[in-house]
Protein 1
Amino acid sequence: MKAWDAIIIGGGHNGLVNACYLQRAGLDVLVVEKNGWVGGAATSRELTPGFLYSNCSYVCSLFRPEIMRDLELPRFGLQVISYEGGAVFTRDGDYLANYRDHDAHRREFARFSKRDAEAYDRYARDVTRQCRFIQPLLMRTAPDPTSLKPRDLGELLYLGKKFAGLSAQEMALTLRFWTMSISEFLDEYFETDVIKANFALSGIIGTALGPMSPGTAYVLLHHYMGEVDGSVGAWGYARGGMGAVTKALAASFKASGGTIRTGAEVDHVLVRGGKARGVMLAGGEEIYGKLVVSNADVKRTFLKLVEEKELPDIFLRRVRNFKIRGSSGKVNIALDSLPEFPALPKDSPVYRGDMHFTDSMERMERAYDDWKAGRWSADPFLDMVIPTTLDPTMAPPGKHFMSCFVQYAPPKVNGREWTDADRDGFAESVIAQIAEYSPGFRDRIVHMEVRTPREIEAEVGLTEGNIFQGELTFDQLLFNRPVPGYAQYRSPVGGLYMCGSSTHPGGGVMGAPGRNAAAEILRDLAKSYQHMSPAHDVI
Amino acid sequence: MNHQPTARTLAQSHFRTLRIGSPFQPRIDALAKTQDWYNWAGYRAPHSLWDEELEYFAIRSQAALFDISPMTKYRIEGPDAEAFLDRVTLRDVTKLKPGRVHYTAWCDDEGFVLDDGTLFRLSPTRFRLCSQERHLPWLLDSAIGYEVSVEEETEAVAGLALQGPTSFAVLRDAGFAGVERLKIFDLADFPHDGETVTISRTGFTGDLGYELFVHADKALSLWDRLMAAGELRGIRAIGYTALNRARLEAGLIVANADFTTAEHAIRADRLRMPDEIGLGFMIDLEKGHFNGRRAILEARARRKLRHVLVGLEIEGNIPAEHAIVYHKKHQEVGLVSAAMWSPMAKRNIAIASLTRPYGDTVVEDLWVEIYAMRELQYQKLMKRAKVVARPFIKLDRRTANPPADF
Amino acid sequence: MTSFDAIIIGGGHNGLVAAATLAKAGRKAVVLEAGAELGGAARTEEFAPGFRVSSVAHLLNRLHPDVVKTLELERHGLRFSRADFLPSVALSKDGPPLVLHGAYGEVLTGASASEQSAWKDLRAQLLRYAGILKPFLSRRPPDLAGMSMLETAALGQAALSLKKLGKEDMRDFLRVLLMNVADLLDEQLTDDRLKGLLAFDATLGSHLGPRSPTSLLGLYYRLAGETGGAAGAQMLPKGGMGAVVAAIRAAAEQADVAIRTSAPVAKVIVEKGRAVGVVLDSGEELRARTIVSAINPATTFLDLVGPREIDTGFVRKVKNIRMTGDAAKLHLALDRPPQFAGVDAAGHKGRLVIAPSPDHVERAFNPSKYGEFSSEPVMEITLPSLADPSLAPDGACVLSAVVQYAPYQLKEGWDAGKPKFLRAVMAQLESYAPGIGGSVVHAELLTPDDIEARYRMPGGHWHHGELQADQMLISRPVSGWSGYDTPVDGLFLAGAGSHPGGGVSGAPGLNAARRIIAMKG
């Protein structure tokens, strides 16, 4: 029977990126995907006639341009459209907008505080400095600090040198960045609550932390990584929805000779003699491969797909201890017309950006307190976009698709599973909040899809519905991600690799884990990987 | 939600005009034959209005009117204003008498230059600080412990530079009685249109010249008054390209053109201390404490100064803009930040930042490699450069008293 | 006029330690204390007729061994005996308490056998990890800008001791370093009482909840401390904390330190960037080549030195030090000893902790983020007069408790909030020690507001700055100036606001003095 060179479990963006690189390196690669479509959390699905839903991931900001180039994604249809603006609506009927134009940005902030308006440049400078330090690490395998192997020592030295290259001021700031809360960090620059709330949201999106939790300053960097020096990867929509990313990846993969099987759920990884030999599908079919790469998160991979006896205790303990608490949900809405926000001038570019309603740090943090208590937030934080304002291909003319990312939604409600009634209550909290700022909003709704962590886990397979396949706290970053000792995409099982967001550098539609894992696999196979571009220079 | 409009909500509409006009914009627009604009701190400012070459000569042979309203302006007032500014800026502000102006700079704790600018002492307790960049948080945090108020007044105050040999005559003819008494760096208030205009004998050209500040709503009447009075004295409105030439001849530097200001420097090696950009003369170690003093002293003592800004005279007449500076034609030692053929000096001049000891103790055998784009090809030239004193031109009329009536 | 080599501002324990250490190295030193009494927040005070209590700090658990040795404190009356080590009693409303005996739970009682063995492992692990950080307590934080050979060597040493852990242990150490305490406890323990106690200890004195990342560091900080050579051990000093200060004072006086009380400093005199002396409130001027401030860093720079003599960026950094206290201190004069349900006599002499679970602590923490106090506060209670009857009249009893969370900036203001908070605290106490309310002769509740006013601690924060990861080591009190020297030549910091932080350790005072001696100041 045929043995593939590599079998990739899961056709999410990282699985596909990994598959593309391996196939292009000359391997015969099979991607098995449980759903009837590929894309994982980066999909566009027609859930009601005429409307394409980016029903999970909804913004394309972090995807590495090196990968887009290597895999020729533009040729396969990927096109990213930048946001035009964004805003936080305030409770007094006004809003604070973010404009792309630097001076408009300053004038907008000056409406609230002249001081904050002039504080922005220093803030941007400091954040940019930190991004420049961290960005090059995204496309490198994290070194094992306990290892004496030349390669790990070399990488540690690289890290050390990068760090030593910083000024003392920057070093201190770097250390603080990893440990401060975004709230405290912002306090050092800005005085106005709504301005702080405006920036703080990048510190909490996707994490089970509140803006006042230490460590959230780093999460902000993670989200800013796409726009270092304003050059590449600004926040934007993928034309045709986020599925366009994975569609292009799948097309690229197939064009280079790769094979995808959808509707093929993996039951477990076949292991013999401590080595992965293939996978068995839910139906009992066995597929053989010389190596297996899992795009699933580390918990799903090792607690569900691999038998316990194949894994060392200490590894299992660490996998069990991996924190992957879901913190968010989605409400996706088809609208028969563009909603109006009386606070917003009709010609405002904000309609073509991301909109928020949480105008104070306290509201944001209280939303998190609800999560800690096992409830969805009564006054949720929303990151709301209407991609059809820039990409009319996603809905019939004049109609719109709206994506609401909602925080917080706990993986379990008061310790029990989500029920349909819970889900409806959760949705209502979102609709009520939008309707408060947009009269008549309810009447425009044609169709709605509500996704709590339960739905996200069931459909996409993300454990506990965590969109980053694991929290982005220091104990789960770099050489700690996903678990200490196995932060280099390999696992205790020979020939079994990881390539999902559970691995370094983490979540977001970035593609870096998939690429980095491919680099390690090819290294193990002693295959050249010239077709893989090095990370772009940061100069 | 139904809310009454407030000043804050009324200001929302700014997003429709990304480059706002200055208070003089109607007059400038009317004269803008080239329609050649650039973004000066969010304002629509002219590169040139009709002919950048002739605009330059308007500065040197007539009177040129240049809109400086987009300059950042802060009003600093209070019993501790002098002490506050003495702590913030490098020069000794106690020596700046009311009715006087000085050129100064200010640093962060590490002694890196945050900006340079002009400080106008309007009264014993009232100052105006003009600068390229914005500094409100820094100034407000510096005001902790002082009885002083700091207010940003960029949009509220309109500014004009009137520069050139006939500028005095224009002002006198415009009826500003007593303007002849202003010596270089003096300032005084004069009545204008029911209010006052502050006129200082200052400028950015190295020529005889004045700067005028009025409340924004009196801007147009001031413009008209000057234009009417200057008609027979050759007054012309000009854009930035002409001014930039004049300032280079005068050897003056521009923040974020000739050096990077500390709050904008993302790369740590771009930061500059005053001694590294030719502003060391401002440092007054005898006065009380000022921001950066400790770091500046230490850098001087431990020879940590790594750069030096110099004036260069380059052989030939091809401008060396952004040329790399070499020692012995091969070792890279710096970069030219501004360069031109000076019509006044008849010399090929430049301002460059060099890595010490070049430009400091080693000044021989310096070269610049000029990439001159000619018909889609670079003509590479290696030209000898000599370190020379700034300013590149020295005009007696700039400081002559009484000012000459040309 | 007598001339001094060094003027030490502040007669708290750190100021006295710094002065005594300097004096022993031959410096002529004077300590200037603003209050009528020495000791700062480490005093024994009479709060009701016949009732005396350790005013803010009430437990000795981290007096640094180098301080004890350098100042020969045992010769000056300080005694450490294993018999004095206090048990920690995790109270429970619905069952018997769980007790950690000896030095931070060498023996655990009241828990299941499996929990006991889990605790044994966890305790050993925590002590191992805290041990790696311990050498940092008695050193200057490394200077990133110009790392000296010595500092590099010290860091190397830490790396080496890390290596000694073994590969897997080292990996775990690096993983958990900045983790939140609740997650770690959930990974290894099951008993809510034990987890609650540890969660409480990790967050005590900080504006963190057990679910806040980095909160585990609080536990390390505690376990890096030692008493009588035993890590994590704690005791109630005989005679209250004032007795500890008295011993330090005796050491200082024997070394010829001049001590002046009621001598508040109004101003540090700075001439040409150098501190040359101080002016007292009285107008009296004292000069010395070294000025040591063992008081709060913000007070030192913003009030005594003043912003005019320092740079704006430094003023910013000092103003950005987070130092708003989140803990209150309760003193009760009781006409009879209280009876905590299910607790034996030995337990009553120990440290009684109300923190039934990490979630409970977290819930108590939540309101403090918004300037509200906890309606169900968590607390650490001691009954010092049980072991030391001199503290209370015959038959009566003193209760001393640290209560969390009580934010300094209470939205409604402490004038209005204090009686309400006291009611909440008493209600909580009543449910664990029924009848206690009826035995109260006098109650004194010190909110952060009160602590600020009474002990000159801005924000009422006993660490003089939050002891969180971003305000530790090279970032304490501010980045760039973590090594006790300051931008003002000749002026040094020696208080809890400096590395390693607060608690009655004397380490900042000792480290500062060593730095001054090394600089020949």
Protein 2
Amino acid sequence: MTGLMTSRALALLFWLTAAIIYLPIGVMAVFSFSSARYQILPIPTYTTEWYTRVFTDGQYSTGFVNSILLASTVSFVATLIGFACAYSLVNARFPGKTAFTLLVLAPLAVPLLLVGIALRIWTTMLGLQPSLPLAGIGQVLYVLPLAVLNLRNRIAQLPKSHEEAAWALGASRLRAIVDIVLPACRTSLMATFILCFTFAFDEFVIAYFLTNFSVTLPIKIWTTIVTGFDPTINALGTMVFAFSLILGVTAQWLFLRKDP
Amino acid sequence: MARPPVVNLWQGILPALLLMVGFFLLPVLYTLGLSLTSEGTSGLTLVNYQSFMAQPTLTDALLRSLVLALSVVFISTLFAWPLAWYLTFCVSDRRRVLMLFVLVAPFWTSFTIRAFSWQMVLADTGMVGATLSRLTGAPVSLGFLYSLPASIFGLVLFGVMLITLMVYSSMATIDRRLLEANAVLGGSGWTAFREVVLPLALPGWIIGAALTFIVAVGDYAVPTLLGGGLRPVLAQVMLSVLKGTYDLPMAATLASLLVIVIVLCVAPLLLLIRGTRLQS
């Protein structure tokens, strides 16, 4: 149907697009080992100095620790709430189910900026100070739709008969969920956790709006970038890119793998 | 068949419901409401919107956001359709998995770092300028960074990925026999596209275009790093209001305008989806 020439041209278009998407990241990775401050070729000497600096700069490590803690908490809470929500959406009929589903998925269809600004205005009205826990709540809103969508698909695929057998043997609904449904979903739960973590770890706008002085890694990166150029960002950016890529690949791989 | 033990499944959705209502729905409604109030006057007022209209920096920012988002959707669409066609009809299954992965993987990492890496490459001291200078033997100043086209470029990369993915996922479900029927009846590749592929893949495009529009119109990182601060978009003025003058009703007004722009631009698209569903 598609001629050979057209097909070749389209292949070229695809790989050109891919090359453009990867170009700056590749350049950043290469120059993160350059001793020069700017992108000069040929590279004067190779150095790992910028990487050392990332690890010795206290603010980066504080940001990193904050981000890890925040993203883990956010992903754990989102996976838990998402599981309860997904299980009910699959198994229950209740009035307003469509409206509720739309509400839970709504943050996907709204700019993050809006989630951040509305939450900031709302919490200011309530008299709450901006803080990391508030940023965490904002980020749960952001990743919850992903958790619900992924887990709902998985739970809907489970054969109903195992749970029914447990009920017949006298298990309560909760007991059947804990003993039957949770173990059957463990790969998806892990994948969901990692996926949420990937997004929460890199999330910048909500955290920026809802904290005052606490620093997460994306906030530290942002302030470093906008207050003037610092080559350590090349090194840090390369590491963050690799880290997120590994997480994303792992999550994707787990989703593709079937739960036993 | 065993009867399910009686438990009210409302308990399962309760945490999500409380969270969404308490920290999403109410804040958004409160923000919309706040834009209609003003200190000193009681009751509802349009004074914030009037003050918005009176400030060219603000109205320009709104227009710029709109131009940015529409251009991003338009340009991304031009690239996305051929790419989705290619992925659906021209490659083997195994290759396709790899290619989809290649396309999507970079977008798992932060917008900020990707925008920053472009800032470095496009800067006058960056790779592209340096390479051009070397090739031509004269200093080349790109003059591309810190402009609206640079912001558009940065967001188009995201848009191409997302719209391609969405169009592809619709195209992949098309029954190939329809295309064979078209070929048997003497239809060309172009008729196959116009009569079969386009209408059936349109819902995917609509979702992709709507999401791309929403991201582009509300993004802060790319317009700041690639577009610069001199000609700000709505997101940038919103942040400077919030971190600067701290005029909450004005921040709420800007946020409400963002909502209005999104509803006005995305609603027609979604109506189009309903139209295509009714047809088929």
